[in-house]
Amino acid sequence: MQDLQQDDDLPMFARGIAGPLGKLDIPAKTKIDEKTHELWLQQCAMQGVDTSSVLRDFIYASVYGKTYSQMVLDKANHDAKRIATLAGLIGHFGAPESDEKRSRA
Description:
- The protein is 65% helix and 6% strand.
- The chain is mostly helical.
């Protein structure tokens, strides 16, 4: 159990994480009882997630009605649709090398 707790103290990335609403740089911590902590660590381990992401999802769901994970997915889907729409409006836009390769084929 202790190994899971120590993993949360290590930074996931060398640089700050940018989320759909900006940089994630404000820590959120709380105190809970030992039994709840053990059960929470077990639950996170069974789901294959770290405690930080579960806590982050809970906070975002409480504030925005959507988990952080859902907001990231929504933003990625929005960006993909925007790129597809732009590609449809202006046509194929590749690097000059891609046109060269097509003409040789």
